[in-house]
Write a structure and sequence with these properties.
The protein is an alpha+beta fold. Helices cover about 50% and strands about 15% of the residues. It contains six helices and six strands. The chain has helices spanning about 5-15, 45-60, 75-90, 90-100, 105-115, 120-130; strands at about 15-20, 30-35, 35-40, 135-140, 140-145, 150-155. A three-stranded mixed beta sheet has the order 1-3-2, with helices on one face. The chain has a three-stranded antiparallel beta sheet with strand order 4-5-6, covered by helices on one side. A hairpin with a 2-residue loop joins strand 4 (about 135-140) and strand 5. Helix 1 packs parallel to helix 2 and helix 4 packs across helix 5 (about 105-115). The chain is globular and about 50 Å long.
């Protein structure tokens, strides 16, 4: 089962219905409203669909109320929290380490290994940089977010 299928199963187990082929406006890839997720019919790959579905499940778990107006700081915080939830679900610090251990050497290989889009990976790294700063140590590894994504294993 791939990431997308696992997320669909997770949504179903949480009572969240997913419309996988919804004609959303051009600037929206996904939308969560009251236990329902709509994915844009413009999403072509399972990686694209999985990235959007992960964020929308994040909204299901973390968002309260209508946050469409992003000029409101509380709404921006909730949007960021849902995105971080999705990044942790799809990539996470341990996912970056697993990609390193698998021999991935660039963002394309890492994204492919994790079954996410390169754009989503870069957004995740930027979010982690904002959250953790220039680096984060976990277990016997240090992940550097600046200037590039680098993983080092401590011996």
């Amino acid at each position: 089962m791939n990431n997308y299928e696992e997320l669909l199963h997770e949504a179903d187990s949480k009572g969240v219905s997913v419309d996988e082929d919804y004609p959303l406006s051009e600037h929206l890839s996904g939308l969560y409203i009251d236990g329902n997720i709509a994915l844009s019919n413009r999403l072509k790959t399972t990686a694209e669909k999985a990235c959007v579905l992960a964020e929308e499940l994040g909204h299901h778990e973390t968002t309260v109320g209508n946050i469409i107006d992003l000029s409101v700081s509380w709404n921006r915080k909730q949007e960021r929290q849902a995105r971080l939830n999705g990044y942790n679900r799809m990539i996470g610090l341990m996912g970056i380490i697993r990609a390193y251990e698998a021999g991935c050497q660039n963002q394309h290989e890492i994204a492919e290994f994790l079954n996410v889009t390169e754009e989503y990976l870069l957004e995740c790294v930027e979010c982690y940089r904002d959250k953790y700063g220039t680096m984060k140590s976990i277990d016997n590894y240090t992940i550097y977010f600046i200037p590039y994504l680098v993983v080092m294993k401590m011996v």
